[in-house]
Every structure is written in structure tokens, then in C-alpha cells.
Amino acid sequence: MRQKIIAGNWKMHKTTDEARQFVQALQEKLTDCRAAVVICPPFTALAAVAEVLAGSKLALGAQNMHWADQGAYTGEISPLMLQDCGCRYVILGHSERRQYFGETDGQVNQKVKAALAHGLLPVVCVGETLAQRQGGLTETVVGSQTAAALAGLTPEQVAGLVIAYEPVWAIGTGQTASEQDAQQVNQYIRALLAEQYGQAAAAAVRILYGGSVKPANAASLLAQPDIDGALVGGASLKAADFLGIIQAV
Ligand code: G3P
């Protein structure tokens, strides 16, 4: 039985004070929870959120990182720095990184390997654009992004991974994939992993869905057999909405 994960990706939102207050309020209201809950604030708020989360069941994640431990990479953050801030998870290959910052499949692969080497749990994002979906290319795109991101990993490493299927057309648009469509792609990813890494790894890997997840649609998405949780953007910025999604598990 795979434990579900509800992860909040705050993207470029919230000051340190806002982050601290949000997490304090969330913790007070979150009494009983079956899911693993992960908060991914911007880099500037990681340390503050880590302080509030100390000793709690909620985990901290980052939204990106560089693959090198250190070096002359102006503006970048290394896996060692994320560990230093108390991160357990790191989102890698988000479509906004690919689209606006030119992140390639090869770089995502380097980052995944670096995260694993430092004991961070990667949340590897894959997903097709609207044009690709309309052109019947969803499986081709998602399949090749997944294969490239995971290239060179062992079945044991794959078993511990988190993958997030985030169709680009559903991100921040209010246009959620239907639970059938999301389930179909997640099932496809799991089947692909079974072929490449074996049944045991495919059965263990957690595959989330992301893209306009809200309290109103969370329960039906999370009820699908291959949807092991949600990567939530906009609705993770309001405590009531994020709680509603967590409570849908
Ligand atoms: O990583 C989360 C994401 O991109 C989905 O964003 O705002 O559609 O929930 P949103």
C-alpha cells in the first residue's frame, strides 16, 4: 500500500513571515492525517519553515536545485544547501523550469542523480503541452521525459522515487485533467517503469497528479488506483484549500 503524498508547490509566492504564519496555522488545524504532507516554499523561506516544522510530521521540500555540490554557479542552490536547510524532498524538472529556463531532460537526469546521492527525495515532473495532447503525443512525450529523467537509475532507486504527472495545459488554468485521463497517464507511466525496472519498482514508485487540483476535485482524483497523491500549486497557498485537499485522502 503506497502512502499518498500531498505536496504544496508555492512557486514564487510568500515572504518569510507569510510562510511562517501559514505553516503554523496549517499545523494547528492538521490533527489526523493519513498522507505525507510536503511544503515546498521558495528558497528564501526554507530555513524559516524548517524551524516551524521541527519535530512535526510535515516535510520540507525545495522547488529546484543545481546538480553540483558547490562551485561557480551564480544564483544556483546545491543539494548540500538544501540538506543544510532541512529539506527532505526536491521538485525537479517542473514544466515552468523547462519552459522558462530551458531546463533539458539531460539536466533533469543530472539533478535526479545528485538528489538521490545526497539523500533527497526527487519529485520528478513530466507532462505534455496542449498542442502535444491534441496531436496525440501525450504518451510519447511523458514516456520520453520519464525515461530520460530516470536514465541510469537502479530499480531500487526508482522504487523510492516520486513522479508527478503535470499536464502543462492544466497548470494554473483551472482546467483539471479528468480523473480518467490522469489515471490513464499515471497507469501508462507505471507500466513503462515495470518494463524498464521490473514490477516491484513500478509497484512501489509514487506517481502524483498535478494541475489545478482543488478541494472540489481532489477526492475523485485521489481515488484512482495509480494516483498516489497531488502536487498542488495555487490551492496550496491558502490554508483552507490545502487542508481540504489533504482531508480528501
Ligand atoms: O507544481 C504544481 C503545479 O504546477 C500545479 O499548479 O496552480 O495548477 O495547482 P496549479
TrEMBL record:
User: What are the record keywords, sorted?
Assistant: Cytoplasm, Gluconeogenesis, Glycolysis, Isomerase
Q: Which GO terms describe its cellular component?
A: cytosol
User: What positions does the entry give for substrate binding?
Assistant: N9, W10, K11, G172, S212, G233, G234
The EC number(s) given in the record are: 5.3.1.1
What pathway, per the record?
Carbohydrate degradation; glycolysis; D-glyceraldehyde 3-phosphate from glycerone phosphate: step 1/1; Carbohydrate biosynthesis; gluconeogenesis
Q: Reaction catalysed by this chain?
A: D-glyceraldehyde 3-phosphate = dihydroxyacetone phosphate
Q: How does it assemble?
A: Homodimer.
Give the similarity note.
Belongs to the triosephosphate isomerase family.
Q: Which HAMAP family match?
A: TIM_B
Quote the protein name from its UniProt record: Triosephosphate isomerase
Give the species this sequence originates from.
Desulforamulus hydrothermalis Lam5 = DSM 18033
GN (gene name): tpiA
